# Entry
Amino acid sequence: MNCSKHIESQAIAKCKICGAGVCKECASKTALLKSDFGVLCPDCFNKKLDLLSDFYWEDKRKRKIRMIISIITYCLGIFFILGSIISHYYDMVLAIIIGVVLCGFYTGLTWRNVAQQAHEEEELRNGPTYVITEDGIEKEDAFWMKIVFFVIGTAIGVIYTPIRIIIDAIGISKDKRYLSEFATAKIK
Ligand SMILES: [Zn+2]
Ligand SMILES: [Zn+2]
# Structure
């Protein structure tokens, strides 16, 4: 079998995706993804690079948004907490609560969503439960469970948010490195 790109060259391997012949030169050009996908022909290699680039581009975008929101809300939160303590603000407790919620709300929201998901799965398995309230019969929607999860998540978020900001910053620089690596590796 010969290479699908270089008809004159002997193929040394088959493309793991389309089965086309891959010569030594093509194999060395597409070696970047070999450890993850096996030997690829130039066409499949380029397609894989495009898919991977999309993935890392999206990852970078998500991390950036989360990081920017987190930095802003965390700084605001710390400002509320420290500001009220330093200035002996008359409603210090309220200011501190607002500050804590600002610092940890992103994590709190994630935890609340976990509770929501667990509730939905429970409903799928056993059907909805109904409760009798002042307004009649209502579907149970795990209101308090979500509140409790939000509060726990928020408290954890006060400590975890700066760590997540660092993790995201590292993630963004990794994404950037992969993206530039893929851009230069693409075969024209
Ligand atoms: Zn192929
Ligand atoms: Zn070739």
In short: Residues 3, 5-6, 9, 23, 25-26 surround zinc ion (ligand 2) (CB under 6 Å). Residues 2 and 10 are 5 Å apart (CA to CA).
